[in-house]
Amino acid sequence: MESPTFANFDIPSEYPGRKTKACMIFLEFEKPLESLYEQLDKIRQVGEEGDLDVTPMIKELEGKIKAKRKEIYENLSGWQKVQLSRHPARPYTQYYIEQMCRKFVELHGDRNFADDKAIVGGIGSLDGMSVMIIGHQKGVNTKMRQYRNFGMANPEGYRKALRLMKLAEKFNFPIITLIDTPGAFPGIEAEERGQAEAIARNMFEMVSLKVPVICVVIGEGASGGAIGIGVGDKVFMMEYTWYSVISPESCSSILWRSWDYKEQAAESLKLTADHMYELELIDGILKEPAGGAHTAPEEMAKALKKHLKKEIATLLEMTPEQRIEGRIEKFSKMGRFAEIEEEEPVKTES
């Protein structure tokens, strides 16, 4: 089990993103940055050991790093953004909860079968305002990922989420959901306990909740696993996240019988935040720090908190009826289609 505990959290002290070293994990397309950082470390070491003033060299290298990072991140492909959303040092739901809330009481169980560790939820204090926060938790190392089932929730996870949403509605607490999952758990036992029904029920119930509901994709947003807690008045995505009915790997394996075409699939699926906003499927994009949320997690948490407070304040000015009507209209108009007039059948002589 994850330890040690922080107040009512079970967030480990070695949480990814808290220490600089944890962030220095470079993805394949970031290799040019890795060599520059190695040079920077060597120069700093020479300066410390030889008691030399290497400030000009450090400033020059830092300038090169900044320029190279800008060059790389201005031209990211869909697949590269998918990789960033899965960065091992990327902060997860519990990290944001710890950073945003001075007090948080986690609530457990669906009152029916079990407590799903892949979804965490509870009541938090957002600068004195009580909110219900629900989100996927992947786990921060191998042992914890197994404990959290890699963020893939079972039906009891979605039923727990719905129970907490109904509790929030009862006490008039705004609801915040943080989405980060490779998909709902596809195991036989999950299907036996009604995985599809649990997700569909959440979608149905979330539309009619009387309190404000804000959903944010903080990492991966895959399929029903994401939409199961993704119906809200406002839906946002962080800059380097993705949201799609299927992952690029699964799409590639279906279409080409191989994962080798995952990069092509990522482009075709149009799953990035930019694409989702262009298609009017989300309401906005939260800009991440240079290099991704994992490079400056505290900064990202502060930006998320500020954004949530602003959006909640706006939604609280509306009546419950207005919010529900807006939600229905929002999701009903998603998708585009064209009607084709049916031609009269050609009559032939017998």
Explain briefly what this protein structure is:
This protein is α/β, with parallel strands linked by helices. The protein has 15 helices and 8 strands.
Describe this structure in words.
- This protein is of the alpha/beta class and 350 residues long.
- It folds into two domains: 29-75; 83-332, 2-enoyl-CoA Hydratase, Chain A, domain 1 (Alpha-Beta Complex).
- The protein has helices at 20-23, 31-50, 55-73, 78-85, 93-100, 142-147, 155-170, 188-192, 195-207, 223-227, 248-256, 262-269, 273-278, 297-316, 320-332; strands spanning 104-106, 119-126, 129-136, 175-181, 213-222, 234-238, 242-244, 284-286.
- Strands 1, 2, 3, 4, 5, 6, 7 and 8 form an eight-stranded mixed beta sheet that branches.
- The chain is globular.
- Residues 1-23 have low confidence and may be disordered.
Counted by DSSP, the helix tally is 15
Radius of gyration: 23 Å
Structural domains: how many: 2
Spell out the helices and strands N to C: HHHHHEEEHHEHHEHEEHHHEHH
Helical fraction equals 40-55%
At CATH's second level, what is the architecture of the largest domain?
Answer: Alpha-Beta Complex
The largest sheet is: 8 strands, mixed
Coarse morphology: globular
CATH superfamily of the largest domain: 2-enoyl-CoA Hydratase, Chain A, domain 1
Which features would summarize this protein structure in a list?
46% helix, 350 residues, 15 helices
Topology:
Elements: H1 20-23, H2 31-50, H3 55-73, H4 78-85, H5 93-100, E1 104-106, E2 119-126, E3 129-136, H6 142-147, H7 155-170, E4 175-181, H8 188-192, H9 195-207, E5 213-222, H10 223-227, E6 234-238, E7 242-244, H11 248-256, H12 262-269, H13 273-278, E8 284-286, H14 297-316, H15 320-332
Parallel strand pairs: 3-4, 4-5, 5-6, 5-7, 6-8
Antiparallel strand pairs: 1-2, 2-3
Helix pairs in contact: 2-3, 4-12, 5-14, 7-9, 11-12
